[in-house]
Amino acid sequence: MSEYAGDLTPQEAWELLLSDPAAILVDVRTEAEWRFTGVPDTSETGREPIFAEWVNYPAGARNTQFVDQLRDAGMSPETGAPIVFLCRSGQRSIGAASAATAAGMGPAYNILDGFEGAPDEDGHRGVQGWKASGLPWRQG
């Protein structure tokens, strides 16, 4: 896969979304994650996030239509719009950013720590990431 543009903290990603009217957030988690753990609320930017699973639930198989779904959502090499990718912990979104870059889209960025972050020493999520940073979100 191609090298993506880099990693952003959740706050840096939010600031990019607020400051660049062309920037778009793509949430690559599964439908179950969107429904049960919530989604970023980007209403302040005037643009809704794009929801495209990087892997399918429950099988966990890679979504072979991912890049096509991005194109269907209006992303293309011609726009040059910044794309920030979000998953649960910042891992799947690396693959998504790389795939978008390989397709000529972007610049494509990964959001560090994702929506909920990695599990803590007790196995709990939510101490890092978008939600823990106090950024806007809503129940899916």
UniProtKB/TrEMBL annotation:
Superkingdom in the source lineage: Bacteria
Sample GO molecular function, one term: transferase activity
Residues annotated as signal peptide: none
Span list, region Disordered: 120-140
Domain Rhodanese: 19-127
This protein's record includes keyword Cell membrane: no
Keyword set, alphabetical order: Transferase
One protein family per Pfam: Rhodanese
Keyword Transferase carried by entry: yes
PANTHER family: RHODANESE-LIKE DOMAIN-CONTAINING PROTEIN 4, CHLOROPLASTIC
Protein name: Rhodanese-related sulfurtransferase
Organism name: Demequina lutea
